[in-house]
Each structure stands twice: as structure tokens, then as C-alpha cells.
Amino acid sequence: MSIVTSEFGVLPDGSLATKFIIKNRGRSSIRLTNYGAILLGIEMPDTEGVMADVTLGFDTLDEYVTGNDPYFGATVGRFANRINGGKFSLEGVDYTLAVNNGPNHLHGGLQGFDKVLWDYELLDGESGNCVSFSYTSVDGEENYPGKLNVRVKYELTDANELVISYEAETDKTTIINLTNHTYFNLSGGESETILDHEIELQSDNYTPVNEDLIPTGEILPVVDTPFDFKNPKLIGLDIDRVGGYDHNYILSDDLDYDVRVSDPLSGRLMEMCTTEPAVQFYTGNFLENLKGRNGSIYNQRAGFCLEAQHYPDSPNQPQFPSVVLRPGETYRQKTVYRFSLISPE
User: How many CB atoms lie within 10 A of CB 66?
Assistant: First the structure.
């Protein structure tokens, strides 16, 4: 195991951002930066042992700072996903947040956790090397209440598992919903879309949304709908029937894995499991002619996201699991992405 650090670039205020590369004994690696606690890339082997990056992203810090960044690899907070109208009430106080996605608040606002410089520490993990990022979000930042101390730890194991662990504490009652927003394409650049990837998502129910992608408050079964992935099927099979996936799936808490995705072209397989109650399955619906890594051009369906999180708009939906964090409590989340190869028939 090894961690290599280098300068990633200079921010507009003159601060230096650092890049980290964690390699395991099998030559797989992840790349990180303390700007936005962003996961810059993941290199995994295909069936021929050829290493390739299985994520979308940019080459330079400047593209993450000033470009049209769709949250590539970002640590998203203070509240991931959408809040209806950018408004919520907590303990009798009304809060108004930035509206940065049509009529809604999205992914923490104008300067969410993906747009700040985090402190960092290099650690020896239980089964691999780690980079631990920490950030203090002051009371009133993006108009959220409470000073929030946040830690996000990335670990790469020799079993090709990427483990992301989150913790947070607050000094005032607040809301929190953290996730990672990596876009995956398991072909490693061999395919321009993920339509031929096969996905199995172990969820019986999802939360339908209105035209602004805000949950209606219903919880509906996926059976006999285009949203049913309980049995493996191609991402592209029903995608046009729903205009692309950007939906919250409710997860069980007793499974070895929650989601399994495979790419027949490369033979790569990725499984995800999480302690969170849901996952947002997103198929890059808003990517359009975006210049990415190594001169790649990303368009719709170039990648997919599996964002482990609580339900969207939870502060305004009391029937959803609570996203409230109080003084004296610790928010914790753990999500694992496990990479391997498709088993031969």
C-alpha cells in the first residue's frame, strides 16, 4: 500500500490544493484532492488485466473550480439532492436557502462542500491506506443552522474495495445529508454511454417525483414499472420511457450488496453497499457536450451515479426518515464500492 501526494493546483485565493494517489498491492488505485474532498478517479483492471479509469472527471483543478462541473466525484453537502423551493422549517424557525436548480435548492447551494478546501490527514486504515478529510462549516454557511464539523475518509483495500466513511457533529440542531457524486463508466473509456451496462438494484420501492424532481411524498412499488431493477437488466432497456433515471430507491438493511452493475465490454463488475436508507440512481441526464478527462466529450448517459443518501426533500416530508442532527449526536455513514470481474458462465 502507498499514498503519493503532489500539488494539484492553486485556487483563486492563492491556496494550494493537494492531490493524493492511493495504490493497493494489486495495482488498482484511487485519486483524491482536498478541494471538495473530491474523488478524482478510480483505476481498476479489466478481464485482460488492463487498468483504466472507471469514472468521469476533469484533468485540472481549474476545471473543477471554474468549469461547468456537474459534481464529478464530489463530496456533497450540507444537504445532498433537492430541497423544494429552497425552504424548510426546523424547531419553529423557517430557513431559506439558495435556489440553484430551477425552483429548488440542490447539493448544498452556491458553495457546497464540493467548493471548499478541506484539511487532510494520511492514515493507516484497517485494511488499507486512507486519506481523511475534515471541514468545519460555520453556523449560517449557505444559511444552514449550526456549526458542523465534518470528516470524510477514503480507503482503498487490497480487495479492490473503495470504502467511504462519513462523520459529523453540530453545536445547534441542523439537517444533514452527505453523499459522494462519482459518475461511473465501467468500460474505462471504451464506450461513450452506459446504456449496455447491466444493473441489479435490490429495492422494492422508490419515491416518485414531480416535474421539478421533487418527491411527491408517495412511496410506490417498482414491480411492473420501468423502475424495476430487482432482476438484472440493461440500463438502456427502459430509460427512454422515463426520460432518464434520477430517482431515489429505498434500500433494505440486511443485504450483502444493494446494487450490482456490470459492463460486458470490459468484464468489470461493481457492487455497492451502504448504511444509508436510500440511493439516488442517476444516468447523467444533464450532461451535454462537456469536455472532460483526456479530451473526452461527455454527453447524456456517459456515466451513472449511485449516491447513497437519505431521501430528497426530507426536511419537508415528515413521513421520510429524519435528517435532523442535534448537539451531542454523531452523524455516521459508510458506503463501499467493491470492484471485481464478471464470473464466467
Answer: 10
- Name the strand (E) or helix (H) holding 122: strand 119-124
Q: Which position among 63, 105, 142, 181 bears the catalytic label?
A: 181
276 is known as an active-site residue: no
Taking only the tens place, the pLDDT of each residue in 247-274 is 999 998 766 899 999 999 999 999 999 9
Q: Is the dihedral of CA 306, 310, 311, 315 positive or negative?
A: negative
Q: What is the dihedral sign for C-alpha 109, 111, 115, 117?
A: negative
pLDDT tens readout for residues 13-32: 999 999 999 999 999 999 99
* Catalytic residue of the set 169, 197, 307, 310: 307
- For the purposes of burial, counting CB atoms within 10 Å of the CB of 289, is it exposed (0-12), middle (13-18) or buried (19 or more)? exposed
Catalytic residue status for 181? yes
pTM above 0.90, yes or no: yes
Task: Please determine, looking at this structure, whether the domain spanning 39-110+175-341 carries the CATH number 2.70.98.10.
Answer: yes
Classify the C-alpha dihedral 234-251-134-338 as positive or negative. Answer: negative
Confidence at residue 253, expressed as pLDDT on a 0 to 100 scale: 77
Going from N- to C-terminal start, the domains of the chain cover 39-110+175-341
Distance (Å, whole) CA 97 – CA 312: 15
